[in-house]
Amino acid sequence: MYGGRARRGAAIAAVLLMAGCAAEPARQDGGAARESGAAREPATADTRTPGPQGVAPRPGEVGRIRASGGLPPVVSSIPTRRKVVFLTIDDGWEQDPGFVRQIREERIPMTAFAMRDAVEAEGTPDQSGGEARFVGAGKWGYFRQLRDAGVPIENHTLTHPDLSRMGYDAQRREICGASALIRKQTGARPTLFRPPFGAYNSGTLRAAGSCGIDAVLLWTATVQPGGKIAYQVPDKRLRPGDILLMHFRPNLARDFRILVKKIKRRGYELGDLRAYLDAAVRPGA
Ligand SMILES: [Zn+2]
After folding, report:
1. Which of 107, 114, 118, 145 gives a 20 to 30 Å CA spacing to 136?
2. What is the value of pTM for the model shown?
3. CA–CA separation, 229 vs 219, rounded Å?
4. How far apart are CA 189 and CA 216, in angstroms?
5. Is the pLDDT of residue 45 over 80?
C-alpha cells in the first residue's frame, strides 16, 4: 500500500499495448516438450531467505507517477534512468515446478498476476510455448509456492474478459471477486491489477480502486517462447524502467533462464517492482 490513503491521480497515459495473454492463438510446436534440466539444478544449502532480491531504488532515482481523482494510476513503465527492468507473469495455466525452483533458489524478483480460470485450469490453456505438461497441476497450491518464494500474487480477473466492453458492476465483480479469492487462497489481498489484453476504461479504474487496488499495471514488452523479447517500441531495445510481461507457458523454466541471461548480458538489473512503485507514487506528492 502506498502509505495508507495516498493521493494517486491522473493516470499516466497508457499506450494501448498489444494484447498479451490468451489473446494469442495457440500454436502447436509438435514434438514432446523437453524440460531443460530442472531436476539437475544444484541443491543450494540455505539460500531461502524470503523475499525477492531485486534492486531497490536509490534516493531521488525514481520520477513521479502522477494520479488524480483518487483513482489508481495506470503504470506501463517505471520512470528511472537506471538500467533496471521488472519481471511480471500472467494467467497461470502451465504450472511448471522448475520455474518456482528458479525463482526460489536464485531469488529472482517477480510479480505474478493470477487469473482464476487459468489457475484452476478451466477453458483453453495457452500452449503457445509448445505442448503443455503441467496445466493446472498445482492449482492455487502452485501460487502458494510462488508466494513462499517471495512472489506477490496480484489480480488478473476471474475469467479474462475485455473489461473495456463491460459495465462498472460487471467489472467490479471480476476484479473484487478475484481479489477475494486470492486473499482466501494465499492470505494476502492483491494491491495491483493487470487488465486482460491491457484493455480498460474509466470504469475499470474506479472498480479497481473500490476493490483495494493501488495501481493498474500494464507493460512495455512481452516475452515470447524461446525467451525472445517482443518490444512495443520501434527501436527494439530494452529501456530503463521497462516492465516485461511473460506467461505461464510450456517450457517456461527453459525460456526464463534464457531471458534472465539476456537481460543481464545487456547490463540490466532486475528490480523490486513494489519498492519502485512505492517510490514513484508518493503519498502527498
Ligand atoms: Zn492474461
Report:
1. 107
2. 0.83
3. 12
4. 15
5. no
